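Build the 3D complex.
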Amino acid sequence: MSIQNQTYQTIVIGSGLAGLITALECHHTGPVLLVTKTSLGEGSTRYAQGGIAVAKKIGDSIEEHLVDTIAAGAGIVNEENARILVTEADASINILQKYGVIFDSSSEGREAAHSQARVLHAGGDQTGLAITTALTNSCQNLGVTILENTLVTGLKQNNFGGEVYGIETINNENILEHYTAQSIVLATGGLGSLYSRTTNPETITGDGITLAFEVGAQLADLEFVQFHPTAFKKKGSAPFLLSETLRGEGAILRNSLGEAFMQKTHPKADLAPRDIVAREITKEMQRENSSQVWLDCTQIESKNNIELTKRFPNIFKFCKAHNIDIRTQPIPVTPAAHYHMGGVFTDKWGQTTIPNLYAVGEAAMTGVHGANRLASNSLLEAAVFGIRTAEHINTQKNIPLASSSEALEIKSLGKTSTDLKVLQQLLWSTAGIERDAISMTKGLKTIESGQAIEKLSSKKAINMYRATLTSHLILKSALSREESRGAHQRSDFPERDDLNWKRHQVVSYVK
Ligand code: FAD
Ligand code: SIN
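Done.
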């Protein structure tokens, strides 16, 4: 039987950790179709370096992990879901190991805002690659049906707001197809590549957000975009992250005069929360009128009993290829869009507000990260909630999450930009590390004056349409939240406003 004529129990869209683990865990109860935009396993997961947080070692506890997660989230963490995250961490690691992931036996890494060194890694700084390789092999060996180089362009539904029953796709030859299933899982990742500076691969442009939005699913907290402080800065270089675990091992941020500027800024210095470090770097760059600061790893080997070539083999190799020996030379770095705390609103079983539609991983908003994610809690969320979503699908007890009546209503769809680079610059300059009403309104006007859509008949045009629509939704959400909290910093509303804004911001499409 052809792939198309088969009946599937589950269609999973995306082949990062969230999609792969959901597909594997659903596969033993019914046929699964895994559809992915480019090659199998391409997505942010593959590039994850630091690792996956789990309170395992003596002296650490689930409670401490929970406390750190809640503190990082700046007042709006969903505590029930966060407790699930940290409590089910160990069991989810065991399941990853069952599918062949081998974690390093050397000590756990430390990252910002974790009170303990609790970050489990694999291949030194190649945790994501180790996870992706093991899970893609398992999918192939166990016979999950896989469709590569296929963009999901829409979800099938009879009535707006009603249940979904399938997907529409376009492949590299611009051939349109459709597939049906009882359950559809969005595992499309975040949206970093909507920004001109990002750590994410280019496929990650927030597709799940608009796919869900178009069928009436509620979204939430779209304004919370996390900027990682240390992305490699060199014109023309592909996005590349300098893991926070480098600072966990003692790397120091310096300005062009060699001053360790974080030490005078925050009691935790270079290991202050991510949003604070990203903002301080930006201020330092503005003060110096430069486009980078410097990450100095030169003292790590003499201070700690580690070899940089062994603990960080991939970072070492990448920098060496750019003529930097990290043992003796500082690395040019700049903040970059890294992670989306917002996404498709789900409950603790991955259910969205639309029957039969689930969302997992970075595409989902489970509320576990609040306004600012704790490092290494994202792979964990993808694993824990991917496994839970599969359990829910396998037992078929679909009762979708009740919609929130207090939603930011969006009434228009349907503009598109023609140039992705222009859109990325626009989002960086209007909804970046610091925002205000003037710049966001300008950004919105530019997008709203774009072209009306006629016919979307190529992969490129559909990608541009989705990128424009998601950017529009981020700007609308960020303009609406008139306060500063976590990763959402407004220069015109610099204070946190718990009275009005200690809550998630739900967004829905009203036709
Ligand atoms: P992804 O891994 O991004 O996968 C999304 C998938 O969806 C891709 O396969 C993509 O092609 C597919 N897709 C998207 N749209 C469509 C469409 N329309 N049709 C078909 N397919 C589609 N987190 C940690 O916890 N620890 C770390 O150490 C860490 N390091 C990181 C380092 C880097 C460089 C980056 C970028 C992120 C890092 N993160 C880390 C964050 C973490 O890696 C991601 O949040 C997580 O991997 C997301 O997994 P995911 O499965 O949800 O999405
Ligand atoms: C890093 O290694 O710095 C990234 C970790 C994360 O985003 O969780």
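The longest strand covers residues 176-186.
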